[in-house]
């Protein structure tokens, strides 16, 4: 049903643009570290699966897939599509944003030398992520999310590096937030192979900024889709 | 909410969890164990991750966690040694401190997790690392971290429990951060591939064999 799919696409981007994505804040443990024991104590199959309540996954099950490491209702990617397709289109949207950001940064001519090389590298890898996710969505029989129109503040090299760090750290936590929700092992493998690359970008940028490479400490924290989309909303025009 | 209040008390007095074990459901005990573990790792408040019963762990997941624990033991020992043996200074020394802290936390958390799932954690292996200068240390560090990333990413799709997967993801992200930072110290690319490659367990164990002493 092409019309329904278009409606979903427009709705997803429009929602982000209008800031009508749920504004529930990231649920997180205070103190910046989360024990594995705490992860494992999260409810298993009895979970109300509220984070999946808007999804109709292929299996139709909200049983053993219900637990998502404690993420709440605000982690739904249903606005981007069902199940894994929705997750991939959500990721694709974020990758489009990152790719566009780096393209703009390169055009700005704010950087040279090794900093510019790093930015070019990260930009080309985000572009590769866009291609891969687009292909994956198509292969799964879905319609890839459209490229959003974006605008990023580019005032100084320092400000841009800080923004890049924010975006990459957010991207890494976004992937981590989705990983437990993915049904297909192949999609999970792909997501994890991208997740760790975003983490590399984040750590490299933090190093350039003289910031800690592990802002969350020994255990990276996942971010819910709602929080991530609200965070990037200012850049979608 | 009541369970959160109760758990809060037990976190402040973890010994209570032991006293009350008899007659309680195993799942409650594990919950309190997890809360105690949370206290060890400095949870300032009850994590929303802590909810109801803990599902019995699949043996496959425990084996996977022990696989991860072996690698973390290797890294932990490597960096602990490196604190003095690597001859590092300045930003590299700081980085080694950071990474060492992280790997130690990973060892502790994985050990506690395996125990709380009813499994038996592997013991720390005897190790030897060959390098004669700082450059040798950082080259080896880069190999270890990249191997770790590839190991976690390779095995993660086999994990059955979503919670164990979340934990593995949380750790592999940190290993990737380490890898990037160490690569920069070596003058190498922090992100050699757009998609991090995976390794099978066999490949990983072969890669780390040189560091294990019989």
Structural account:
The complex is a heterodimer of chains A (237) and B (214). Chain A is mainly alpha-helical. Helices cover 55% and strands 0% of the residues of chain A. Chain A has seven helices and no strands. In chain A, helix 4 (113-139) packs antiparallel against helix 6. Chain A is globular, with a radius of gyration of 17 Å. Chain A starts with a helix and ends in a 5-residue tail after the last helix. The model of chain A is unreliable at 1-7 and 23-70 (pLDDT under 50). With 214 residues, chain B is an all-alpha fold. In chain B, 65% of the residues lie in helices and 0% in strands. Chain B has helices at 2-12, 14-19, 26-40, 59-85, 90-116, 134-155, 162-185, 201-208. In chain B, helix 3 runs antiparallel to helix 5 (90-116), helix 4 (59-85) runs antiparallel to helix 5 and helix 6 (134-155) runs antiparallel to helix 8. The longest helix of chain B is centred in the middle third of the chain and has 27 residues, at 59-85. Chain B is globular. The termini of chain B are far apart. Residues 1-56 of chain B have low confidence and may be disordered. At the A-B interface, helix 2, helix 4 and helix 6 of A face helix 3, helix 5, helix 6 and helix 7 of B.
Outline the secondary-structure elements.
The complex is a heterodimer of chains A (237) and B (214).
Chain A: H1 2-18, H2 36-40, H3 83-108, H4 113-139, H5 157-178, H6 185-209, H7 225-232
Chain B: H1 2-12, H2 14-19, H3 26-40, H4 59-85, H5 90-116, H6 134-155, H7 162-185, H8 201-208
Helix pairs in contact in B: 1-3, 3-5, 4-5, 4-6, 5-7, 6-7, 6-8
Q: What gross morphology of chain B would you assign?
A: globular
SSE pattern of chain B, N- to C-terminal: HHHHHHHH
Helix and strand content put the structural class of chain A at mainly alpha
Described by strand count, sense and barrel closure, the largest sheet of chain A is: none
Strand content of chain A: under 5%
What is Rg of chain A? 17 Å
């Amino acid at each position: 049903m092409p019309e329904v799919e278009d409606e979903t696409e427009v709705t997803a981007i429009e929602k982000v643009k209008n800031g009508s994505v749920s504004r529930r804040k990231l649920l997180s443990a205070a103190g910046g570290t989360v024990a594995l024991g705490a992860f494992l104590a999260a409810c298993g199959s009895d979970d109300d699966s509220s984070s999946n309540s808007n999804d109709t996954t292929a299996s139709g099950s909200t049983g053993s897939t219900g637990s998502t490491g404690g993420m709440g209702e605000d982690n739904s990617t249903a606005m981007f599509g069902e199940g894994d397709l929705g997750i991939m289109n959500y990721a694709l949207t974020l990758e489009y944003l990152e790719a566009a950001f780096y393209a703009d940064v390169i055009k700005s001519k704010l950087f040279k030398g090794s900093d510019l090389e790093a930015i070019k590298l990260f930009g080309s890898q985000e572009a590769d992520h866009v291609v891969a996710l687009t292909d994956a969505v198509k292969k799964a029989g879905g319609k890839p999310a459209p490229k959003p129109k974006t605008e990023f503040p580019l005032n100084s090299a320092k400000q841009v590096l800080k923004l890049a760090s924010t975006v990459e750290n957010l991207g890494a936590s976004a992937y981590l937030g989705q990983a437990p929700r993915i049904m297909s092992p192949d999609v999970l493998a792909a997501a994890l192979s991208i997740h760790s690359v975003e983490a590399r970008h984040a750590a490299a940028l933090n190093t350039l900024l003289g910031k800690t490479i592990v802002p969350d400490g020994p255990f990276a924290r996942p971010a819910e889709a709602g929080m991530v989309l609200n965070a990037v909303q200012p850049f979608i025009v | 909410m009541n369970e959160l209040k109760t758990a809060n008390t037990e976190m402040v007095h973890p010994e209570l969890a032991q006293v009350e074990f008899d007659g309680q459901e195993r799942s409650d005990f594990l919950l309190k164990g997890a809360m105690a573990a949370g206290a060890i790792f400095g949870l300032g408040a009850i994590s929303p991750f802590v909810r109801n019963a803990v599902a019995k762990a699949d043996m496959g997941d425990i084996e996977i966690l022990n696989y991860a624990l072996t690698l973390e033991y290797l890294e932990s020992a490597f960096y602990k040694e490196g604190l003095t043996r690597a001859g590092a200074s300045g930003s590299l020394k700081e980085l080694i401190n950071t990474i060492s802290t992280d790997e130690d936390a990973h060892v502790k958390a994985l050990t506690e997790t395996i125990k709380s799932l009813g499994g038996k954690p592997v013991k720390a292996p005897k190790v030897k690392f060959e390098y004669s200068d700082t450059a040798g240390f950082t080259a080896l560090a880069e190999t270890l971290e990249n191997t770790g990333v590839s190991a976690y990413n390779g095995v993660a799709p086999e994990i059955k429990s979503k919670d164990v997967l979340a934990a593995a993801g949380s750790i592999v992200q940190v290993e990737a951060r380490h890898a990037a930072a160490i690569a920069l110290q070596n003058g190498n690319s922090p992100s050699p591939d757009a998609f991090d490659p995976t390794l099978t367990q066999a490949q990983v164990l072969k890669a780390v064999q040189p560091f294990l002493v019989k």
